[in-house]
Amino acid sequence: MKYKPLFTNKESKALDSLTIKELGFQEQTLMGMAALSVFHANEDLWKTAESIWILSGSGGNGGDGYALAHTLFQEGYNVRCFSTSPNKNEAGKFYESLVSKTLGTIGTMEDFYKEWEEAEEDSVLLVDALLGTGFQDSLSKELKELIDTVNDSDVFFYRLSLDTASGWNPYLLGEKTQESQSFVFADSIEELGTRKWENIGFIYEKDSIIPRYYESIGFPVHSHLNNATFSNRYYLEPDPESAISIIKRKNKDHKYSAGSALFYGGSDGMEGAILLSEQAFARLGGGISKIFSPSMNIASLVFKEDLSKMVKTSSLAETLNDPFLKKTKTLVLGPGLTQYPNDLSGWEVPEGLRLVLDAGAIPTKGIPLPKGNEILLTPHVGELNRMTGIPHHSVQAAYDTLIKYCPQNNVYVLLKSFVSLLVCPNGFSYVWESPNPKLATMGTGDLLSGILARYLSLDLSIEEAVPLALSLLDHSKQVEEPYPSAHQILKSLVELV
């Protein structure tokens, strides 16, 4: 599995300073390297534009814009540069002066509006170099007007932002601020030097994560990872090949070595949820499993489909004393439960047993969690809010809550959303940014619980199992049906393995 370090704005600034002060890089050199990286990464894009306009602010981000303008001009592109105000950054001043000499002029905001009014529809590629990742203040009236113009105009057929979309701040997202917050609606973002934590979840169209591309410019992102410059946040990239190969049964496997798991859930009328979880586990190669449920109908429902299954109507207390629990490595608890089981509060999880808590087993704030070293909770956003008593409108806000919650309760939490977040009790966290609208259907959470159980039953750690399960489930994007059911998704995954 590929893990890419994610840096906060503060950490990125610290790395920038370290690169200049301790490693001896000149900021002017880094700015030039950033411009060259962006230029070469987008050579096909530049060719599509009749004209390229660069909006440069007064800081380092504006300096990157000037450096890019110089490079584009020297390579023969029709480029115009507009400035909100003179650059205050020393390296930025150098490139601002260079652009004045090479392009002949840098336009003011008055020039920008005048030329914008005369420009033809879809004729301009706009580069946003207004505000860097360090900008945290509210926008001035002038900047808000400029950004709103950029967003609403049909003159600009593409908007590329350097490092971050100007004005974007995930911490301002909320029910009242989401619509009123002004930021550039970038078509893509070029992250320079470090991958940015605050950019995670950048979205302005429903169900659409805007593409971000990372350009290395020499920052020591691996040789200087320490507590001062890095907080152990990682970006997960899908690994579909490993997800499939690991889950396949080996020739020498027997029913226990192939993986064993116990499932408890399915209140009256909700039995399908726990059955789907167990079915995912079994059909993806699990060797042996047993289903427990408070429902009196569970046995007839199971045996109607498969007489070889083990199933029992039981309370959770009886389930936790069943001999099968001592033989298995994985317990999935909660799919289809309509009420949190009191016997779970404070339960001492046996050593070596991995516990997955989903749906009805996600506790409300104030209810004691079970105690153990390998407990994974899998809430969606609403369940996370109920579990912590705090509303969350961004993955960054969820992280701020969970980075305290997980060590305090010695649990792992996988937040399921269009951006998924795994936070571990040791302080490590992993982001999965792969929106999949085909999973927005009833039963896919139950499916994920069963897939997680399959990987965990193979003696994998929670940190290893979660990205593999997400990678496997990501294959559902290939299902031909536009709105597949959970059973159709499972069928497609079974065909892969």
Automatic annotation (TrEMBL):
Gene3D superfamilies in alphabetical order: 3.40.1190.20, YjeF N-terminal domain
Q: Which InterPro entries match?
A: CARKD, Nnr, Ribokinase-like, YjeF_N_dom, YjeF_N_dom_sf
A Pfam family this protein belongs to?
Answer: Carb_kinase
Q: Which cofactor does it need?
A: K(+)
Cofactor note (record) = Binds 1 potassium ion per subunit.
User: Per its UniProt entry, which superkingdom is the organism in?
Assistant: Bacteria
- What is the E.C. number? 4.2.1.136, 5.1.99.6
PROSITE patterns to which the protein is assigned, alphabetical = YJEF_C_3, YJEF_N
Positions of the YjeF N-terminal domain:
12-216
Which transformation does this protein catalyse, written as a reaction?
A: (6S)-NADHX + ADP = AMP + phosphate + NADH + H(+); (6R)-NADPHX = (6S)-NADPHX; (6S)-NADPHX + ADP = AMP + phosphate + NADPH + H(+); (6R)-NADHX = (6S)-NADHX
Q: Name one GO molecular function term.
A: metal ion binding
Q: Where is the YjeF C-terminal domain?
A: 238-497
Family membership? In the C-terminal section; belongs to the NnrD/CARKD family.
> What is the role of the protein in this entry?
Bifunctional enzyme that catalyzes the epimerization of the S- and R-forms of NAD(P)HX and the dehydration of the S-form of NAD(P)HX at the expense of ADP, which is converted to AMP. This allows the repair of both epimers of NAD(P)HX, a damaged form of NAD(P)H that is a result of enzymatic or heat-dependent hydration.
Query: Which protein, by its recorded name, is this?
Result: Bifunctional NAD(P)H-hydrate repair enzyme
What's the source species for this entry? Leptospira terpstrae serovar Hualin str. LT 11-33 = ATCC 700639
Supply the source organism's classification.
Bacteria, Pseudomonadati, Spirochaetota, Spirochaetia, Leptospirales
